[in-house]
Specification:
Elements (H helix, E strand, L loop, with lengths): L5 E3 L14 E3 L3 H6 L23
Parallel strand pairs: 1-2
Length: 57
């Protein structure tokens, strides 16, 4: 388990490099844009070194 910042982006990027974030997600960008406090809990199965190539893998 890791606890830390998640970078929320509105379009596909190249990862969290330079941001200090442990992960990047697109789904939380809308919540962040709303300006209300929120928390995100993620289970991540793909990494920058081992991306998912097909849906469902």
């Amino acid at each position: 388990m890791h606890v830390g910042a998640i970078s929320s982006v509105s379009r596909i990027g190249r990862g969290p490099a330079g941001s200090g974030a442990l992960a990047v997600d697109m789904e939380s960008a809308q919540l962040a844009a709303a300006g209300s406090p929120f928390a995100v809990c993620r289970a991540i199965v793909d990494t920058v070194d081992h991306p998912l190539w097909q849906l469902g893998t």
